[in-house]
User: Fold this.
Amino acid sequence: MENNSEEYDALAEYRNINKKKYEDRIMKENEELEKERIQEEMNEKIQNEYNYKQLQIEKDREYSMQYYNAINNINPSNNIQTNYGSIVLNNYTERLINPSNYRYQENDITQNLLNNSEQPSFFNRIRYSFFSK
Assistant:
């Protein structure tokens, strides 16, 4: 009987030690997660501030151009003509309203395919490749 109580006390002590270690580990992990969350929030806030500043710079540039044109009686063109006759909007506000008209890069290959009517269409090329064998 006395032997069982000693074993029980050792087992209870072992459990208490491990429970304490477990609680300490959980607290450390929670602190690390909290630090990481705070760091992510700070990074996101910094990025948002940077994006806002860039937006303000672009808006200020546009308004400066408009003011300059108004002072010098210049009729500004809001459109820039590309090599292929497509229109790129130069005005910040118009780009926000009509973003589909804004082209970032000209593609010579697609333009050549569209202009060259001698080549068969995509459908005909597929049909020839499947049925010619």
